[in-house]
Structure formats: structure tokens, C-alpha cells
Specification:
259 residues, alpha+beta, 8 helices, 10 strands
Length: 259
């Protein structure tokens, strides 16, 4: 989902994949400069030294609730979340909010339990990232209390995103690194937290010979990801042929890093 920071509306990324072991304890993340291969599109790497000064660490199991709050705040105005949320048969928005909270909780706990969650030292932003196939999140059971149309749209997204990812990335997908979620606290935007987390993920994947990919659910993220060397590979459009959706179609972009 969307991640708002600086001039872009980039409050979070939701793409709804063992990180790297004990050597990544709480510390400032650094990378050998020889592994950095800036994209011609990248302007963010000019501030590389500033980003390396931002301490990053793993999220522990006692911090799941805090991570959920960051995600909920970041995704409040996200187009994909709105597509799930606003349906004609949803007569109780509080029910959706409770189910969305459970989904974010289940998603966060699933990744954190296997060491896939990262944050800044002051918990200003969170990222879930994996160089291998991610753990499965049981969306169906978590959203069991949602309306029929809400569940239908979530299932539509899950199936469509998997199909497009398989078609676009092919057999190489299993060897690629994946950024599954990125979110920044609204009150801490503009500090480079999202950039530091993305750079950490991309640099580590590059050092392992892997390409990083993601799904961005807000077109306002385009400039941010372009500045980090990501390019568009495919587009998913939701709502265009859904008569129950009376808002503009929701566009999700599959992006991969290009060195």
C-alpha cells in the first residue's frame, strides 16, 4: 500500500514474503560500497551516507502491536484498502476496521515470528522483506467476518496478484527477493526511514545476487521507487469491470529493481 513521505503520498506499501540470521542485531546497517550499483534513475543514492546512519533492527514479538499501529495509520488512505473496504453490502464500517486490524495483526505476527520484520531504532517505519518464499497469511479465516463483497475483492486481489507475478517474473521469481510491506508513521515522514529500509533490502539482495521486486498499491509511490532504481514491469487494475465499485479503478504496479 501507499507510503507518504516527503512530496509523495507514500505512507505504506502493502503487497500482501529467514531473513539473514543473528548477524543483523540492533545496529546501524552498512553495506560495502562496491555492491552499490545506482540506477540511472536514482537520485536517492546521492544521500547514501545519511541513510547508512539510520539505525535499523529486527522487530521482536513484543512489538507486533506497535507495528500494526504503524501499518494501520499508513494505509488509512490507501487505494487498495479502500477497494476492500467500501462495498455496498458493508453496513458496519467498524466491523471492517476490526477485521482489517486482525489482518494487519496476523500479517505482522506471521512475518515477525520468522524474523522477517525490520524497523528503525525509534520504530518510525516498518518493512517486511524476504529473499525466499514468504510465509502464508491466512486472509480467508481472518476476514471471515467481513461482508461477502469485501471477501470477494480480497480473494480477487490475492489470485490476480499471484497470477500476474508468476506471468511477469516466471521461474526467476523463486530466486528473487521480495518487499512485502513498507510503512512509515505519518508523524515521522520525511526522515529517510523508508529509503533506509528499502536500501537495506536491495543492498542485501544484490550482495546475494538476487533481484528485488514488490507490488505498489498507490501510483503516488512511483517517484519514490524510481529513485531507488525500481522499474515498472506489469500493472494490475481492480474495479474496472466491477459494477459495485463506483470509484476510479485501482492500479497496482509490479516493480523490480534494475541495477
Amino acid at each position: 500500500m501507499a507510503h507518504k513521505e516527503s512530496s509523495y503520498n507514500r505512507r505504506g506499501l502493502f503487497a500482501g514474503r529467514q531473513l539473514f540470521g543473528a548477524r543483523f542485531a540492533k545496529r546501524t546497517f552498512t553495506t560495502k560500497s562496491s555492491t552499490l550499483q545506482p540506477s540511472p534513475l536514482s537520485s536517492t543514492y546521492a544521500a547514501m551516507e545519511d541513510l547508512k546512519a539510520i539505525p535499523l533492527r529486527k522487530i521482536n514479538s513484543a512489538e507486533v502491536s506497535e507495528a500494526v499501529r504503524v501499518c494501520e495509520d499508513a494505509f488509512e488512505d490507501d487505494p487498495l484498502q479502500h477497494y476492500f473496504r467500501y462495498t455496498p453490502d458493508a453496513d458496519d464500517d467498524q466491523r471492517w476496521r476490526k477485521n482489517w486490524h486482525k489482518l494487519m495483526g496476523g500479517y505482522t505476527k506471521t512475518f515477525t515470528d520468522v524474523g522477517l520484520g525490520w524497523t528503525t531504532d525509534d520504530f518510525g517505519a516498518v518493512l517486511f522483506y524476504s529473499p525466499v518464499k514468504p510465509p502464508d497469511v491466512d486472509r480467508k479465516s481472518i476476514l471471515g467476518g467481513s461482508s461477502e463483497e469485501q471477501q470477494k475483492r480480497v480473494n480477487e486481489w490475492t489470485k490476480t496478484s499471484e497470477r500476474v507475478a508468476d506471468e511477469t517474473l516466471g521461474e526467476s521469481r523463486k530466486d528473487m527477493a521480495y518487499i512485502a510491506l513498507l510503512a512509515t508513521k505519518p508523524i515521522q515522514q520525511g526522515r529517510g526511514y523508508a529509503s533506509a529500509l528499502v536500501k537495506m533490502a536491495v543492498d542485501e539482495a544484490d550482495a546475494q545476487g538476487r533481484i528485488t521486486w514488490l507490488l505498489s498499491s498507490n501510483i503516488a509511490n512511483t517517484g519514490f521507487y524510481n529513485s531507488h532504481g525500481f522499474i515498472a514491469k506489469a500493472k494490475i487494475t481492480l474495479g474496472e469491470d466491477n459494477p459495485t465499485w463506483n470509484r476510479p479503478p485501482v492500479e497496482i504496479c509490479l516493480k523490480s529493481w534494475c541495477n
